[in-house]
Structure formats: structure tokens, C-alpha cells
Amino acid sequence: MAAVVVVGSLNADLTVYCRRLPAPGETIAGTATEVGPGGKGANQAVAASLSGAGVALVGAVGDDSNGAMLRHAVTGAGVDARHVRTFADQASGMAIITVDDAAENTIVTTAGANGRLSAQDVAEAGEVFRGARAVCLCLEVPREAVLAAALAGREAGATVILNASPFGPLASELLAAVDVLLVNAHEASQLLAGAPLPPASADDAAWAPIARGLTEVGAARAVVTLGAGGAVVLEGERGGAGRAGVERVPALPVEPVDTTGAGDAFAGALAARLAAGDSLGDAARYAAVASALSTTARGAQRSYPTREKVVSQQLPQTTKGGRPRLP
């Protein structure tokens, strides 16, 4: 049985590397072009598998060369892809990515077969939810499939993680079925009606209102990723005392080459460690290291580190002093 079930997208990534990102209407020369496996669901599944979890992926591809490539990539990483459906009349999803010399990127996706994934497809994959410890979701597939998967995960007693990306309105029914919301700073601000977020260096008191705000919209437990600033684990109430829990997670200092898929590396690693029984804070510390390491090589899945590489790292000192050990 899979410890982690991922329901999400599979995309062929067409990446163009360039000295700088083009301005609107501008044509510039690229320095290299690569085609590789991507898509938030597939990326998260591979990251979870490399982090040591047994993983099953539920998704969709087209009956084309990209679909074959995407299946080969996830199965090669140890992911169970039996419930990745193939649509003969639909192309596989694709992402067009530009990456500059500062490792910043722009991404445009076309859903392709991902847009055909349905609640019925999730229901037909019901066997993989039995015994699952964590269910990892994103928003690159139709909301009906996301909700069906969240409810299936809840029924199975798994920890349901929603990576709310690409961001859009979140129905209360979906949030009620989610145990951990994973967002970046921009997405957290959008969820809070544009409220500005404190900088990564802010103290716990500055983050407490954000924790309470997320609780009020239905996300009592959340992880906000801050790129090079690490992450913040927020819990609306700690120990039932009505106090906001704030735990800041340090970033691992690296020299980034390509940040594509770094958020997915975080999500998959987080799911793997939660499935292994870690606390949310411990899981986020591991995920932050996995995500940072993924930025040191080009591409998404091909840049993801193994569990052995993650645990070999020396973590930065925490705000409470000392250097925490990775699980």
C-alpha cells in the first residue's frame, strides 16, 4: 500500500534558459533549451518517493510521446502510476518555462489531459487511499477531482495536504477536508484578501495575526513558504489554549541555478515526512532542505534530492538555538 497518495497534474516542461527574462513584447536569445518531466502532481509524487515514501499517483496524460515520457519518469522514480489515465483524444499537459541567470522563472501551463481528470477517476482509484498516511493535492486539475480526493483521504484517516497552487478561490467544503494548507507568501496574502505578510525575519508576534487569519478562513494548520527565507509553520490554536502557534523554519543556504519545481519538492517531501509520523514542524524542516537542494540543478524532477542527500546536510541554527537534526 502507498503511504502517500498524490492526485494532480503531469506536464511536459519545455524550458528555455536565458540571461534575463524578456520584457512584454521583447524577443531575446536563449542560451539552452530542455524538455523534461514536470507537473505539480508528478513532481510532488517523485519528491515524496525520493524522500523514502511509497507513493501512488492519480492523474491523466494524453496518448502521445509526452505522456509516455511522463509515465516513464514517475515510474522510474518508484511511483505507482497504475491510476494515471491515458486519454486518446487529448494531448498531455505542457508547461512553457523561462529561467534566467538569477534562477528566477516564468511559467505558463496548458492543462491538456489534466483538465479531464474527474471525481469518477478518483473514485476508481479508491484502492490506493486505503492505508494511506498522507494525501497530497494541488490545483492544476479540476476542483471536483481535488475535492473528491480530499474527502477520500479524510475518510481513510490520512493527513490531507493541499498545495493551493495555482491559486484560486477555495471552497469551504474543500478547506474543511484539508488538514494542512501549503502556500507561498503571495498565495497566503491572496487568501487573506491581500493582507501583507511579515518578512521572514519577523518575530512570532508579527506572524500570529496571520495564523489567526488563516484559521478564520478555514486553514487552522498551514505552512507558508518564503523561498530563500525558509518557511513558517502556523497553527491557529496550540494545545487548545487559543494561542497562535508560530514556528519559523530556516532555509538552507545554497547557490540556486533553477527554482522550477522547488515548491513541489517541498510539498512532496513534506507529505513523505508527515506520512512517516513527523510533526508538522519537523516535516517542514526536512522539506525546506529538500526544496533548497532542488534549486541547485536544472529542471524539476531531475533536480530532486534523495533522502540520504537531505539528511546529510547541516541545518542552519534555529531561532531557538541549536541545530535541529533531520529525521
Topology:
Blueprint: E1 4-7, E2 11-18, E3 30-38, H1 40-50, E4 55-62, H2 65-76, E5 80-87, E6 93-99, E7 105-110, H3 119-124, E8 134-137, H4 143-156, E9 159-163, H5 172-176, E10 180-184, H6 185-191, H7 204-216, E11 221-225, E12 231-235, E13 245-249, H8 262-275, H9 280-294, H10 307-311
Parallel strand pairs: 1-4, 1-8, 2-6, 4-5, 8-9, 9-10, 10-11
Antiparallel strand pairs: 2-3, 6-7, 11-12, 12-13
Helix pairs in contact: 1-8, 8-9
Summing up helix and strand content along with how strands pair, one would put the structural category as alpha/beta
Q: Mean pLDDT, as a whole number?
A: 92
Q: Look up the CATH topology of one domain.
A: UDP-N-acetylmuramoyl-L-alanine:D-glutamate ligase
Please summarize the sheet with the most strands: 9 strands, mixed
The strand line-up of the biggest sheet is 5-4-1-8-9-10-11-12-13
Look at the structure and give the CATH class of one domain: Alpha Beta
Model regions low in confidence, pLDDT < 50 over at least 5 residues: none
CATH 2nd-level architecture of one domain: 3-Layer(aba) Sandwich
Number of strands: 13
The helix-strand sequence is: EEEHEHEEEHEHEHEHHEEEHHH
**Number of helical regions:** 10
Distance between the termini: 22 Å
Helix fraction?
A: 25-40%
How large, in whole angstroms, is the Cα Rg? Answer: 19 Å
Gross morphology: globular
Classified in CATH, the superfamily of one domain is: Ribokinase
Share of residues in strands: 15-25%
